[in-house]
Design brief:
Helix content is 28%, strand content 29%. It has 584 residues and is α+β, with helices and mostly antiparallel strands. The chain has three domains: 145 residues, no CATH class; 130 residues, Ubiquitin-like (UB roll) (Roll); 219 residues, no CATH class. β27 and β28 form a beta hairpin.
């Protein structure tokens, strides 16, 4: 008896083939994939010989260019720079040295890095969508680039201007604050890297705004709180029972508004304010008088110094500062003693007690020349040369000018007599030199005349010409030397101090004689002169201690005199004067 039925399904055997449709699908997919690969490879190959579209290198557009064209374009852009890149920042132009900035380009290596066959899909996408900015090879040296740009920062920077206040005609005037600009090296380096070959010329670089330390608001605040109140009225300076009013115009000239600790502050010029106070009330102070060394009955004597009374400028400024912004506007100060530069005790210790030398030279009949010597004598008279100091006649007299009263008188110029301002002052040099000689003081520099002048002792005379030819001597003694000079019928100079030496003079015979010529000159201003022969001569001085016969030391001086030509003011012009005019 049958209890049920069982249905079975037999699986196909292993040797049974799949349906024909499935195989066809695989063949189609495989064929399509192969076609895509062929197309992709073909596209990649076709694009491999050109730079991707939209590609730039340091600002030069190379997109779509073949290798040779792209290389040429890079080389052309680089050659136009000629080693430097013009740049601009905030309207200031400068030039960037490419080598110093580490900027160079290997055109072939750069282009070869951009082209070539590749199956990388990213490369294919770049070819299709654009390569963008690419670096030039070799890569820019960032440190060098920023360093070079930093060196240019000063050239292209516009410094910020602080708000400032000045007093004009007694009133405060505010100058506005102006922001400045400065180069941003890091950001500028980025711009240079991406645009140095193909960017604008000059290449604009980014800058930062730099605010001033003293802003406009701070300037306006200082104007209202300091500058204007300071000159709201006269300043009263009270000294004991006396009061002096300094008017606003004078007061303003002593004031200054300047930065201090990052803000504008009011300051007072103490010496200027003191001068204004003494001008308004001269009775408040008296100037000190130095001790003087004068001659009384032919001997040196000391006139005692006198101390002065004054205000201390620092204390005056300190008292005035708070008073300028106070309603009372009164500064209370006390007087101080002002000591002389040369006190009585110091003058007495200088040792000026006796005559140590004296010498006189005879005058010519030329009145203008004599007046020149009178001016020089008044200027030299009373000069005190301290121990160790060097005396310079050109320094004491200064340039001989008509404004000082000097006249034109004969002077030697290139071996010729000419008229020049201060002519004859060399006679003062000669007279002083003989005092130096006989007092035993140190001769620093002297120059004899170019030809011999018979009114001077031969070999023992000196000429001067401002500023090149000078008479200089040093006080190498332990005491000061006081110079007295005047002009009577002679030029007279006397040195006073403490006698250190007894000096005796000696002179050699003349040698190396030179014969003068006769020169004819019909030029305007010609000065005739007689003929004198030239020669060499030596003079010596022997040093002994006062009262002793023992020779301590000896010195000699050698003089070379040219022949003095005879000058006839007439035809046959000849010698031209040189640029130096010693005063004869």
């Amino acid at each position: 008896m049958s209890t049920g039925s069982v249905q079975t399904t037999e699986a196909p055997g292993e040797d049974e083939s799949p349906p024909a449709g499935s195989a066809r699908r695989r063949l189609i997919v495989g064929g399509a994939l192969a076609a895509v690969i062929v197309l992709y490879s073909g596209a990649a190959w076709a694009m491999s010989s050109r730079v991707p579209n939209g590609t730039t290198v340091a600002g030069v557009d190379l997109g779509g260019q073949g290798r040779d064209a792209a290389i040429d374009r890079l080389r052309t852009a680089s050659s136009k720079l000629d080693g430097s890149l013009p740049i601009t920042a905030h309207g200031q132009n400068a030039s960037l040295d490419l080598a110093a900035a580490g900027l160079s380009v290997d055109a072939e290596a750069t282009v070869d890095d951009l082209i070539g066959f590749s199956l990388n899909p990213i490369t294919l996408v770049k070819h299709l969508t654009g390569g963008g900015e690419q670096p030039a090879l070799p890569e820019a040296d960032q440190a060098k680039l920023e360093s070079a740009l930093g060196a240019l920062a000063t050239a292209v920077a516009a410094p910020a201007t602080n708000a400032s206040i000045s007093y004009v005609n007694g009133k405060p005037v505010l100058a506005k604050a102006v922001p400045g600009t400065e180069l941003k090296p890091a950001a500028a380096a980025g711009v240079v890297r991406t645009s140095w070959l193909g960017g604008a010329r000059p290449l604009p670089l980014p800058t930062d705004v730099k605010q001033p330390d003293i802003t406009q608001e701070e300037g306006e605040d200082a104007l209202a709180k300091l500058a204007e109140p300071a000159v709201a009225g006269p300043l009263t300076v009270k000294v004991g029972s006396r009061s002096v009013s300094v008017p606003v115009p004078k007061l303003a000239s002593t004031l200054k508004i300047a930065p201090k600790d990052g803000e504008l502050a009011l300051t007072v010029d103490g010496p200027k304010l003191l001068a204004a106070v003494l001008a308004a009330g001269p009775e408040i102070g008296t100037e000190p008088k130095d001790a003087q060394i004068v001659l009384k009955n032919g001997k040196p004597a000391v006139i005692p110094a006198v101390a002065g009374v004054t205000l201390d400028p620092t204390a005056l400024a300190a008292a005035a500062l708070p008073a300028l912004t106070d309603k009372a506007r009164t500064a209370v100060v006390t007087t101080t003693v002002k000591e002389p530069k040369l006190t009585t005790e110091e003058a007495r210790k200088l040792g000026v007690k006796e005559q140590i030398s004296t010498f006189s030279t005879i005058l010519t009949a030329n009145a203008a020349r004599t007046e020149n010597l009178r001016i020089a004598a008044r200027t030299v008279n009373g000069t005190l040369v301290l121990p160790g100091e060097t005396f310079s006649l050109n320094t004491v007299l200064g340039k001989r000018t008509p404004e000082k009263g000097y006249n034109q008188a004969p002077a030697i110029n290139g071996g010729r007599l000419v008229n020049d301002y201060g002519g004859g002052v060399s006679q003062m040099a000669t007279t002083i030199f003989n005092n130096v000689f006989f007092s035993g003081l140190e001769d620093v520099y002297h120059k004899p005349h170019s030809f011999y002048i018979s009114r001077y002792p031969e070999g023992r005379e000196a000429t001067v010409n401002y500023p090149s030819v000078d008479l200089k001597w040093r006080n190498d003694s332990d005491t000061a030397v006081l110079i007295k000079a005047n002009v009577t019928s002679t030029v007279n100079v006397t040195f006073y101090g403490t006698k250190t030496w007894d000096i005796t003079a000696s002179k050699s015979g003349r040698s190396n004689f030179r014969t003068p010529k006769t020169v004819y000159d019909d030029q305007p201003g010609c000065v005739s002169q007689g003929a004198n022969g030239g020669f060499d001569v030596s003079v010596g001085r022997t040093f002994r201690k006062p009262g002793s016969t023992k020779v301590v030391k000896q010195e000699s001086f050698h003089a070379v005199y040219n022949a003095e030509d005879k000058i006839v003011c007439g035809p046959k012009p000849d010698a031209k004067p040189d640029s130096q005019t010693p005063e004869r």
